[in-house]
Write a structure and sequence with these properties.
The structure is a homotetramer. In chain A, α1 packs across α5 and α3 packs across α4. The first copy, chain A, is globular, with a radius of gyration of 14 Å. Chain A has a 5-stranded antiparallel beta sheet with strand order 2-1-4-3-5. Chain A is of the alpha+beta class and about 140 residues long. The first copy, chain A, contains 5 helices and 5 strands; from the N terminus they run αββαααββαβ. At the A-D interface, α2 and α4 of A face α2 and α4 of D. Chains A, B, C, D: InterPro entries: GlcG_carb_metab_protein (IPR052517), PduO/GlcC-like (IPR005624), PduO/GlcC-like_sf (IPR038084). Chains A, B, C, D: This is Heme-binding protein. Chains A, B, C, D: Pfam families: HbpS-like (PF03928).
Chain lengths: ~140, ~140, ~140, ~140
């Protein structure tokens, strides 16, 4: 099972709607496949120009390590040099905070990840989760 | 004037529709702003996983140099070392072939670029142009 | 469908056996998944130390572009600056010659790639294909 | 004396068997030679896609510094900026935690290193050591 473009669009639209509903700052949302490659991305008007890289970094670390943003943040807080080293081997592409959310199929296998950035990390994660669930998928924040 | 997310969505949808109409291979489409930063991206089901980087490279070179893909290709064919050097200063992020299309406002100012990849370079450029025009904007291939 | 570790082992062993049967120089063989990530690799005794990167580069470009080594070589010969630019966006990780072989499932979808290096590019490709077919899969050289 | 491919295979198989025996999460195992170059690697089904880079980073730092993962971790905890600087000179390829295990010959000379990732760092190291000892070699965790 993989995330189709149709499902990726739903994830992004519903995550952005959730942000508007919660009156969050403008969000940016990326959806990656099971290999960490971009399926779709949108940046809301008013968001800072560099938001693609942050959204991507949250989702990329999640899928490459098989570890969602919350777990990565705990590891970074407990053993900062380890997550710094992980970032080295992944070319500096990992942003280890909430807002990187793993997407799993019904058997629990990771089929991709969603990265959201723009508001607080916890709000970013809530928006990502809303999008994932609206697409009928299961998310791990 | 800038490319809004709403217009970027139109560009992408219409470029993909053009590809389907012409029976092209699955396409990937990116829209960048006037600073070369990603506004939106979509990769059709069945496209190779690495297509984001190629689409981005076509659009990024266009907006950074203010020179569309066709002009870049001519320069690369006539003076390969120059485009290689350009790629050096831009961190290897430029793919100098058609499919990178500049977007201009009514006064002719560059407000962004579109990058399309998946079929032949010329077909990629045709799909990009169709998307840009459907959004009421003017493209330079 | 994906390439299991069991199938990857078969591909590598049979590719190496083919090399021994054809009296090729010591080979190195990598198997990547559909996202371009390493499943398994072996370097025969007597091979040069840097062979992982060459084997990986052949397979990585194949899966990222959805284009096998032979097609990449043709493109590189006809439009050298294009493949150089592709290498830029993929971080210099592409080696566009035969020996990078796409692996497809029964419906034709790319499920990974095999990279072989050590002898001539054509012999490398032959060894890769022998391994892929011994695993009951279909290869595109 | 060097680690032959035959011995590398034994190391990997026995490390993976140890992981299954201890009911660890899916493991990934790399074997490097005395120059820090890859001899063999395997990633178990179900492991996250980015595990090659982590396994490699554990083994690479070990062999390049002549210092196993446990010693590297102590240094990172006591003098984080030193290990960060080490990573700078080695291109960000070092992951300084247990699971990077030095392999020594009978005279004590380093002939390579093994990197294991997937479970806790200590369990990773135990699996690596089991593999090395099964191959009749001596490991330093």
């Amino acid at each position: 099972m993989s995330i189709t473009l149709r499902k990726a669009r739903t994830i992004i639209r519903k995550a952005l709607e959730k942000g508007q509903e919660l009156e969050l700052k403008p969000l940016s949302v990326v959806v990656l496949d099971a290999g960490g490659h971009v399926i779709a991305f949108e940046r809301e008007d008013g968001a800072a120009p560099g938001r693609f890289a942050i959204a991507h970094g949250k989702a990329y670390g999640s899928v490459m390590l098989g570890m969602a943003g919350t777990a990565q943040m705990k590891r970074a807080e407990g053993q900062a040099y380890f997550m710094a080293a992980v970032n080295g081997v992944y070319g500096g592409q990992v942003v280890p905070v909430p807002g990187g959310v793993l997407v799993r199929d019904k058997k629990g296998a990771v089929i991709g990840a969603v990265g959201v950035t723009g508001d607080t990390s916890d709000n970013d994660a809530a928006a990502a989760l809303a999008g994932i669930e609206a697409a009928g998928l299961s998310g791990e924040i």
